[in-house]
Amino acid sequence: MSSKFLVPNPFVWNESFSVHDDEMDMQHRQIFEYLQGLTEKPSDLALLDKLLDFVRYHFKSEEDRFRMVDFDDQGPHKQTHDRFTLQVQDLRSTIGSKGKLTQDNVMMMKKWLVNHIKGSDTKYVGKLD
Questions:
Q1: Which residues fall within 8 angstroms of residue 86, CB to CB, at 6 or more apart?
Q2: Separation between Cα atoms, residue 30 and residue 24, nearest integer Å
Q3: Which of 1, 10, 20, 63 sees the fewest Cβ atoms within 10 Å?
Q4: How far apart, in whole angstroms, are the C-alpha atoms of residue 99 and residue 54?
Q5: Is 118 a residue whose pLDDT tops 70?
Q6: What's the pLDDT score for residue 129?
Q7: Can you give the pTM of this predicted structure?
Q8: Distance of CA 22 to the CA centre of its chain
Q9: Res 111: pLDDT
Q10: Residue 6: its H or E element
Q11: What is the 8-class DSSP label of residue 122?
């Protein structure tokens, strides 16, 4: 996956990722932390499972907010969430219980997150109130 936006190194959330919504920014920070943890410990499958659970929670939170304000782009936005979730679920299934992530796997998720926040999530700035 190519990256339209620069993936920060170290992989730490900063204000350039803000969507100006405290709840969404906090959740994005948490996803950054999980991914940084997987960079440091790619064999930590429990952390990958926590990431997957949290991503599902975050996507549902975001999508619930979209419905509350009738956000125009909610259908396509949800589709990108669903595709990413399936991609990570497939990756988790492939790894099984004894494998580990590669740095390419982790970088794919980092690129996706950076591009999703800066390319898609910024479209809802100021519209979730």
A1: none
A2: 10
A3: 10
A4: 21
A5: yes
A6: 77
A7: 0.94
A8: 16
A9: 97
A10: none
A11: G
Neighbours of 36 (CB within 10 A): 17
| CB burial of residue 26 (10 Å; 0-12, 13-18, 19+) | exposed
Single-letter amino acid, residue 122: T
AA identity, residue 53: D
Q: Which two tokens stand for residue 62?
A: 């975001």
pLDDT, the chain, mean: 94
**Under 8 Å between Cβ of 126 and 20:** yes
With contact defined as beta carbons under 8 Å apart, do 128 and 65 qualify? yes
> How much is the average pLDDT of 79-101?
94
Segment 47-57 shows an average pLDDT of 98
The residue type found at 22 is D
How many Cα atoms are found within 13 Å in the side-chain-facing hemisphere of 19? 24
For residue 42, is pLDDT > 60? yes
Cα–chain-centroid distance for residue 65? 17
Could you tell me which of 34, 79, 35, 38 has the C-alpha nearest to residue 59? 79
Q: Give me the residue label for tokens 């939170």.
A: 61
Q: Record the tokens describing residue 28, joined without a space.
A: 């994005």
pLDDT of residue 82: 97
Q: Which residues of 68-84 are buried (b: 16+ CB within 10 A; e: fewer)?
A: eeebeebeebbebbeeb
